[in-house]
Design a protein that fits this description.
The chain has helices at about 1-15, 85-100, 175-200; strands at about 25-30, 45-50, 55, 65-70, 70-80, 105-110, 120-135, 140-150, 155-170. The protein is of the alpha/beta class. This is ABC-type transport auxiliary lipoprotein component domain-containing protein.
């Protein structure tokens, strides 16, 4: 993996001289399989709405991000996400939380429904500050998440704020290894979030 990052640095340096090089574009996405499942509101005790993940600046870019030094992020030109990272991360978070929280109705954020029993819900917000590889051969996902609780009588209020930082060594070479490690790390983050929300429930 370190050889890949060294090659990326060389390519960045020579970018002005490489216009004539024809490189095939590669697209990546999280592999997380989607299993057939269903859940009825009558079978659940609470509702959790997962808001669209907010990524800082250039991280929400189709080019897979690489941290070059402490103040520089490079977005790949020919190794791209197959969809917008915020959409991909939100979908994976919702699915992971849905599977990890069988007594909850876990959905992607929706407008408040007028029926009284749908006006009481929890809300999860993510801010992702790092979503990239680095020159040391690591995958890095860091940021924070906030849990809110909305009730018709008390309105929306903040329950808790949690910072997280996961810098994980990449085992396999290339962008395949980076993407696989980012996916596993994001799933592990959401599994930890699921446990924390269960404990924080009012």
């Amino acid at each position: 993996m370190k050889h890949l990052f060294l090659a990326i640095t060389v390519l960045i340096t020579l970018a002005g001289c490489s216009a004539s090089i024809q490189t095939a574009t590669q697209y990546y996405q999280f592999e997380q399989p989607i299993a057939s499942s269903s859940r009825h509101v009558k079978e659940t005790d609470a509702q959790l709405r997962v808001q669209t993940v907010a990524l800082r600046g250039a991280l929400n870019n189709l080019g897979i991000a690489m941290k070059i030094d402490s103040n520089q992020i490079h977005a790949a030109n020919y190794n791209l996400w197959g969809e917008s990272p915020d959409v991909m991360l939100t979908a994976t978070a919702q699915q992971t939380l849905f599977n990890a929280m069988p007594n909850w109705m876990v959905i992607k954020g929706l407008p408040v429904i007028t029926e009284l029993d749908q006006q009481t819900f929890y809300e999860l917000e993510y801010e992702v500050h790092h979503f990239n590889g680095d020159m040391q051969g690591n995958a890095d996902i860091s940021g924070l998440w906030r849990l809110y609780y909305t009730h018709p009588e008390t309105g929306r209020r903040l329950i808790s704020v949690h910072n997280f930082s996961h810098v994980v060594p990449i085992e396999d070479d290339g962008y395949d290894g980076l993407v696989a490690t980012l996916e596993q790390t994001w799933q592990n983050i959401n599994l930890s979030v699921a446990k924390a929300i269960e404990q924080a429930r009012l």
